């Protein structure tokens, strides 16, 4: 049983060379019940970065990372005794209430949707974020999946100077960098082990908006290495929610969505690198169509969470039996031969496993089934992918398509057109990058 506390306190982050210490305390009255220190190691120091730029980004990182510890005591408030500017308060409030939506839903803690943020008001800096300049040196976030590969190749093809960034070191990420022939800079992040002990003791646990943390780590890395822009590869589908609950839309991918992208850009200080998602106006299916052409990466990429397990012995490229494996298999199948796709999945025909039928029906948006709490595309995309399979010589006779529940699912011509359309006005791309997204 975990102690009840009054608040999770965020203490000021400490920077020493390349190492950042993020400090938190769970308190009851004047007593500290639990103390935590998370350690982050950047690939280069920030000594040369102006304090007026460096410190606000470090503070935002501290606020975003706090949620990993706050959830153990939810719905206790998050307190920042040193104070918050109005922009920081808005940032933390939105990231907590939206980014912890899935955690609240799964643990039946609706009060988390209105999580309180405490702390005195601080004045805003005199310099607010100015107009976004056209990027020159871009730091591209890599997760080992198809989306970041499409971004890498689009940017390289246009002659942009790029570097690659990751949090942690994993085989698919390193192999992607090797195939691309681009330098990879890695951030090391170590959560306080005491948190895992609390989870084992029964503290509430679940999904946190990790992309919010990774985005700020990317901004700090860009500052350290002299990049003027951070490029993620989050697409239109990430803004699509999973379920309506207590008057809110619960979205597993909220910190990958457009609302978070806009929030972070508005929260960063003047002089910080531009933060943007190159593939924002595109669907996963359109991205998959382009990725199918990048055959050099087909042997190294993965989207399966099993590839990123903490214990190295638990890792595998594709498990072949999870929402992400099902989704990637379904959305790549229209654009690859059967032999090529089975080669990607180590010979596993995911569609042929009847035990996974319900999992596919969830992706396809069948009434009464919930969209999986995973990074997967919209039901419309999956239905269009299914329609394309019926026209594909290698797949049209597959027994999966003849299953009555699958056979009843259709996609209209209008849905096909919408799935492959560029979503006008649903992105924050600067003029130099917008044509690259349109060309995907």
Bin the strand percentage.
5-15%
Number of strands: 13
> What is Rg?
22 Å
Range of helix content: 25-40%
Structural class: alpha/beta
Question: Could you explain how this protein is built, in words?
Answer:
This protein is α/β, with parallel strands linked by helices and 440 residues long. It has a domain at 283-421. The protein has helices at residues 51-65, 67-70, 86-99, 101-107, 146-157, 171-180, 193-200, 210-225, 258-267, 284-291, 323-332, 338-344, 357-363, 379-389, 399-402, 404-407, 413-419, 434-439, and strands at residues 7-10, 14-16, 19-28, 31-41, 78-79, 117-118, 137-141, 161-167, 184-190, 229-232, 243-245, 248-250, 274-277. The strands form two sheets. Strands 1, 2, 3, 4, 5, 6, 7, 8, 9, 10 and 13 form an eleven-stranded mixed β-sheet that branches. The longest helix has 16 residues, at 210-225. The chain is globular, with a radius of gyration of 22 Å.
């Amino acid at each position: 049983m975990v102690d009840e506390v009054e608040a999770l306190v965020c203490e000021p982050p400490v920077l020493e060379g390349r190492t950042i210490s993020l400090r938190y305390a769970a308190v009851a009255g004047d007593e500290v019940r639990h103390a935590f220190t998370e350690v982050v190691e950047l690939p280069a120091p920030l000594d040369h970065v102006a304090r007026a730029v460096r410190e606000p980004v470090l503070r935002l990182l501290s606020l975003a990372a706090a949620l990993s510890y706050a959830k153990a005591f939810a719905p206790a408030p998050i307190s920042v005794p040193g104070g918050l500017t109005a922009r920081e308060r808005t940032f933390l409030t939105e990231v907590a209430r939206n980014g912890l939506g899935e955690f609240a839903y799964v643990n039946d803690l609706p009060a988390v949707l209105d999580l309180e943020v405490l702390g005195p008001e601080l004045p805003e800096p005199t310099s607010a974020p100015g107009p976004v300049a056209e990027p020159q040196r871009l730091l591209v976030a890599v997760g080992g999946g198809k989306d970041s590969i499409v971004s890498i190749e689009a940017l390289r093809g246009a002659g942009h100077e790029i570097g690659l960034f990751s949090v942690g070191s994993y085989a698919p990420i390193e192999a992607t960098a090797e195939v691309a022939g681009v330098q990879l800079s890695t951030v090391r992040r170590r959560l306080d082990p005491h948190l895992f002990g609390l989870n084992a003791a029964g503290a509430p646990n679940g999904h946190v908006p990790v992309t919010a943390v990774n985005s700020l780590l990317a901004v700090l890395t860009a500052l350290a290495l002299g990049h003027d822009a951070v490029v993620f590869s989050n697409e239109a589908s990430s803004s699509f929610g999973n379920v309506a609950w207590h008057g809110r839309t619960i979205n597993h991918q909220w910190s990958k969505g457009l609302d978070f992208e806009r929030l972070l850009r508005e929260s960063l200080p003047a002089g910080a690198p531009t933060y943007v998602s190159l593939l924002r106006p595109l669907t996963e299916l359109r991205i998959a169509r382009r990725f199918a052409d990048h055959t050099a990466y087909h042997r190294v990429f993965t989207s399966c969470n099993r590839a990123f397990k903490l214990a190295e012995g638990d890792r595998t490229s594709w498990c072949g039996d999870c929402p992400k494996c099902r989704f990637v298999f379904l959305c790549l199948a229209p654009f690859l031969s059967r032999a090529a796709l089975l080669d990607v999945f180590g010979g596993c025909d995911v569609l042929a496993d009847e035990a996974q039928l319900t999992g596919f029906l969830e992706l396809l948006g069948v009434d009464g089934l919930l969209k999986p709490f995973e990074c997967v595309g919209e039901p419309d995309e999956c239905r269009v992918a299914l329609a394309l399979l019926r026209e594909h010589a290698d797949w049209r006779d597959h027994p999966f398509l003849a299953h009555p529940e699958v056979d009843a699912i259709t996609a209209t011509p209008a849905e096909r057109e919408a799935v492959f359309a560029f979503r006008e006005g649903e992105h924050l791309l600067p003029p130099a990058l917008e044509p690259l997204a349109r060309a995907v």
